[in-house]
Write a structure and sequence with these properties.
ATP-binding cassette sub-family B member 6; binds adenosine-5'-triphosphate; four-stranded antiparallel beta sheet; 10 strands
Length: 306
Amino acid sequence: IVQLYVPLNWFGTYYRQIQKNFVDMENMFDLLKEPQEIIDAPGATDISVKRGAVEFNNVTFGYIPERLVLKNVTFSVPQGKTVALVGPSGSGKSTIIRLLFRFYDVETGSIVIDGQNIKTVTQESLRGSIGVVPQDTVLFNNTIMYNIKYGRLTAEEAEVIEAARAADIHDRISRFPEAYETKVGERGLRLSGGEKQRVAIARTLLKAPQIVLLDEATSALDTQTERNIQESLNKMCVNRTTIIVAHRLSTIIHADEILVLRDGEIVERGRHEHLIGQEGVYANMWKQQLEAKEEKPSIENSLEKS
Ligand code: ATP
């Protein structure tokens, strides 16, 4: 669909980075039309996602057989609900997301969406049914119009603008030198982290998937920007099944279930208040984040708002 003239080693770097960080998977599959490890099962049919209910059943997985990264992970996300994944770096949060996108196949256990094992459906239909807002959105060297439209290439211009409005980036685009026709990306107008996230939100709104995967940005945006983005994200997730990899616990206070991962295992689970009451791993993380905020009085405490 899109022609990219870039040095080959860029692909390599990009590919490795994405495999490692779950940066922008949707783009990657378009950028890299190369054979993947995962192949469709013979006679695989398209997935039908109506409700968007997600289940992980006793999922055990390792990138290499000698080292398991997820051990017996079981959870379900009912239609329209939100599950948050938290835990230290390397605990397996992004791996869960990658498996759901079927970057890799699970060894034991199963991942099921609306009753269909994702191993048995076409990858294209699976990925077409899931929206992703990565930490760092990769922009094409193309117009901002194209970059948003990428969420659904058949969308009308008016729909693109509507999505941009809903993602709260329309006014900003209107002030670009050539408005929606402005070239962005590496060789065009550079967008800020927050703006790129809004592009990802607008894309997802256009795509209108039943399931949304969200990898919260670790890099700090200023508090006001963060709040505004949080609002757009919340709107995007309404009535959609959402799985969020959270770094700031303040954003998941209202999650329907929080899974606390450590070394690939779910060590605690429940809603925020429940976990605070347990005085365990989560409660400790919460305390640490509160203390970190207090040490930085210049940053407004965003917790009260949530
Ligand atoms: P972070 O918060 O730092 O993103 P995470 O909880 O998302 O961490 P994962 O990225 O899921 O953690 O990684 C879980 C484990 O799997 C880590 O030990 C990591 O080193 C390992 N791992 C991740 N990707 C690969 C890979 N492509 N090949 C081999 N090992 C990997």
